[in-house]
Amino acid sequence: MTREEKQNAKLEFLYSYNKSYIRIYEIDLDKKNKQILESFAKEHSESEVNEKKALFEKKKERNLAKKKASLEAKREKTAKKFDYKNNINKRRIWEVDLARGLVIVGMLFDHFIFDFLYLFTKSNFKNLPAFYLTLHNFSLVYWDHPARLIVRFIGLFFLFFVSGISSTFSKSTIKRSIFVIAAGAIMSVAFIFVSMVTGSKEDLVIMGAVGGIGVCMLITGLLQLAFKRFKKVYKWLLLGLSVAILIGWYFIITNAATDKSNFWLYYNGYAGAIKIIRYKDLGKNLFGVLLGTKYFGSDWIGLFPNLGYMLLGAFVGETLYKNRKSIFGKYNEMLNKCSYPVVFAGRYSIWFYLFHQIIYIIILGALALIMGAQLLL
Fold first, then answer.
1. What would the 3-class secondary structure string for the chain be?
2. Full-prediction pTM beyond 0.85?
3. Same structural domain for residues 56 and 119?
């Protein structure tokens, strides 16, 4: 039996179930009403009984109508859900999901290595398996390697750029941003526990990638709301603001850099371009951390230059995707199917971001303990 046949069978079952449920519900109502009327008839006249019976009939019709509407609404919701699943590859824009999916895949690898750099180490565990130590040594080389920093820059650009494009597809960017900001807050709370394990408050997160995306989305959504009647002005405003932010940020960091020989180094908070703040100095430098001119924590994403990337993405969305259709036209559905694992990660990126570290830590921690490692408390 194909998926469509199973879905049709379920919808047919729901139709039959609803019909049977309504009939049983009607019989029960009739029994209850009959019992009440029989008791009522003992002390009242026939005209009063008939009047009450008419009231019961009207009430029964109203209740039946409500039940029918409720059950039919649930059936229609199921039908729409099936229709969405069956046609999702037609509706989704392949290149947007692919770009976001590639970023998520890169992030999954990057954070996997992060765990061996800071969590699964000799300072936190005793008798770690040999391959844990090998991965730790690899992470020491990998983490500060210029190639990773270049890839990180590209990944961050596309993360915010694609989020900007997606904001033009959303019915309410502001509502969506509140959800993402809340998810970022959950991540920050999770890192409190990480800091307890590592014993370092420098591992706390004030505004990580999720929180940063949420705040940038909120700003974009507020701009959408303010200029919803001025679409042409709004589109070019997005471009102007993004260019102004990126140019302004570039001059700020290049003037602050102590080593201008490697752009990728000082972009990522190395070589003195972006000052790394210690926990004890966080209070007086909080604005700089949020703005993006000072670095703090295990996961740090400032508003600048990332807000510029998102506004640029929103401009592209308003320009290139104003009809919400892929630039690959008739090949869009085929491309979605061919690259399903990656586009799946792109479609559900927020859930991957929220839960991947929890899964990593549970699995890697349990595996280390099973293989004889001991947690140092």
1. CCHHHHHHHHHHHHHHHHHHHHHHHHHHHHHHHHHHHHHHHCCCCHHHHHHHHHHHHHHHHHHHHHHHHHHHHHHHHHHHHHHHHHHHHHHCCHHHHHHHHHHHHHHHHHHHHHHHHHCCCCCCEECCCHHHHHHHHHHHHHHCCHHHHHHHHHHHHHHHHHHHHHHCCCCCHHHHHHHHHHHHHHHHHHHHHHHHHHCCHHHCCCCCHHHHHHHHHHHHHHHHHHCCCCHHHHHHHHHHHHHHHHHHHHHHHHHHCCCCCCHHHHHCCCCCCCEECCHHHHHHHHHHHHHCCEECCCCCCCCCCHHHHHHHHHHHHHHHCCCCCCCCHHHHHHHHHHCHHHHHHHHCHHHHHHHHHHHHHHHHHHHHHHCCCEECC
2. no
3. no
